[in-house]
Amino acid sequence: MNKLFYPAIFHTAEEGGFWITFPDIPECITQGDNMQQAYEMAVDALELAITSRIEEHLEVPSASEPHGIIIESGSFCVIVEFDLLAYKKKTNSKAVKKTLSIPSWLNEEATALGLNFSQVLQEALMQKIVR
To answer: What is the CATH architecture assignment of 3-91?
Structure first.
């Protein structure tokens, strides 16, 4: 259940842009001024709806087959992906204790400067990981 794919109905808005609904998740509604923004908003809305259901111990519905969805004129179906594992990694800020060794002289210099070892390590790791 790490990757979920839900059909979203993109409705053309009279004033421009799109409003988006999810047939399987009625409370999940969003909008966007153009296709890119609408899709990004649909992903965000789906993330929020699914994670809210999980946190509240509610059923996460199965996704409908796209060919079984009736679409009104001026609307179209887009499949929106939700990666639960990526979402958890992105939003989990639980601290994990790590033990490490550094040279004594480096410890003394860093302590004299009042450096926060955890913060420095996190910043260095982020530079290595985030591209």
So the answer is: 2-Layer Sandwich (3.30)
- Ranking 1-10, 74-83, 86-95, 107-116 by mean pLDDT, the lowest is 86-95
Share of residues in the chain with pLDDT > 70 (%):
98
Query: What tokens appear for 117 in the block?
Result: 């070892």
| Cα–Cα distance for residue pair 113/89, rounded to 1 Å | 32
Query: Domain-by-domain residue ranges, the chain?
Result: 3-91, 95-131
Instruction: Count CB neighbours of 18 within 10 A.
Output: 24
| Measured distance between the N- and C-terminal CA atoms of the chain, rounded to whole angstroms | 27
Predicted TM-score of the model (pTM): 0.67
Q: Which two tokens stand for residue 71?
A: 């679409």
Instruction: Give DSSP secondary structure letters for 10-45.
Output: EEEPTTSSEEEE-TT-TT-EEEESSHHHHHHHHHHH
